[in-house]
Amino acid sequence: MFHWRSLAEVPSGWGPSAVTIGKFDGVHVGHVEILRQLGEISSMRGLKSTVITFDRHPASLLSPEQLPADILSTEDRLALIDQENIDASLVLAFDTELAGLSPRAFVTSILLGKLNTQAVLVGHDFRFGDHASGDVATLQELGAELGFDVVLIDDVAPVDGVRVSSSLIRELMASGDVATAAKLLGRLPRVNGEVVHGHKRGRELGFPTANLSQEATGLVPSDGVYAGWFVDGGHRYPAAISVGTNPTFEGVNKRTVEAFLLDQNLDLYGHQVTIEFAAHIRGMVAFTGIDPLIEQMHNDVRVTREILGLGK
User: Fold this and answer.
1) CATH for 81
2) 64 part of a folded domain
3) Residue from 65, 75, 204, 258 carrying the catalytic annotation
4) Within a domain: residue 250?
């Protein structure tokens, strides 16, 4: 798969292509279906399947007060798109220049001028161009005039009766419902980051944890304790995961993500790792002392084993 970070990187003569356009935040099951249809149409018509996405959410420029949190980093999005056997992805900087293009200019300069587009796959609510002034009808009119097809994609069949969307996934993560979010994503929600030194309170209590840096990427669920997995290179370990400020102790103001690896004692400092959230166990609680906290941590580990099907 080719990855381009600007229009200047697109090679001369690329295409002819079939294109879909979107942020693809989360690359959820609905996005995967769009990518599947893109690949199918491209194969049938002998076109290059090409995804146009953006380096940031359009709301960061158009309505920053409503900017949603990213579910995935750009690198993670591209890696997941790559798994769908797409020929190329083009990441455009969503800046004032791009946002200011008229619908016609977007089509002529990017879709036709750079990608030699013959088919564009979009949803019924697709908007593009300056202040989202272009819609599906606009795109169809330009296609009829300039010689490309517009293929409308219906919503993917609901998951458990619910329409799949990035917004819903964010809501589920904010409520701690990582299990339902996983159904919509088609995989476990995850965060990536470097293991750094923490306060080492877990080690003192008999539960040493791997702490992720504050620069970790991915959407972190609401505060609480979760069952999940800790992935380090080619190794995947069951883990009890804590998210929050550890309210039992004073002086902890920043939210942290830390994982206690079951039946392991590893030196992980400096490792780039992934933490996957499988199920919510409980909310974050300020305990009255160390002994009830330790008792609860033992119970969290027991529940984690049950959820992950590990036995005692």
Assistant:
1) 3.40.50.620
2) yes
3) 258
4) yes
193 and 149 in one domain?
no
Q: What is the pLDDT of residue 221?
A: 98
* Short-list 230, 233, 194, CA closest to 214: 194
Report yes or no on 181 lying in a domain: no
- How many other CB atoms are found less than 10 A from the CB of residue 227? 26
Q: Are residues 99 and 229 in the same domain?
A: no
Write down the residue that tokens 């959410």 correspond to: 57
Domain count along the chain: 2
Q: Tell me, yes or no, whether 162 lies in a domain.
A: no
- Give one word for 46, left, alpha or beta, with left for phi > 0 and alpha for psi -120 to 50: left
- Any alpha helices (H) in the chain, and if so which ranges? 29-45, 59-62, 74-82, 96-99, 103-106, 136-146, 166-174, 178-185, 201-204, 290-307
Range of the structural domain that residue 85 is part of: 2-7+14-153
258 in active site: yes
Distance CA 222, CA 219 (A): 10
37 and 144 share one domain:
yes
Residue (of 95, 76, 85, 101) closest to 36 by Cα position: 85
Q: Give the span between the Cα atoms of 277 and 73, in whole angstroms.
A: 17
pLDDT tens digits along 100-119: 999 999 999 999 999 999 99
pTM for this structure? 0.91
Whether 203 shows a pLDDT value over 70: the answer reads no
Tokens 């002392």 sit at which residue? 289
144 and 262 share one domain: no
Comparing C-alpha atoms, which of 151, 3, 5 is closest to residue 81? 3
pLDDT, tens only, 233-259: 989 999 999 999 875 555 556 889 999
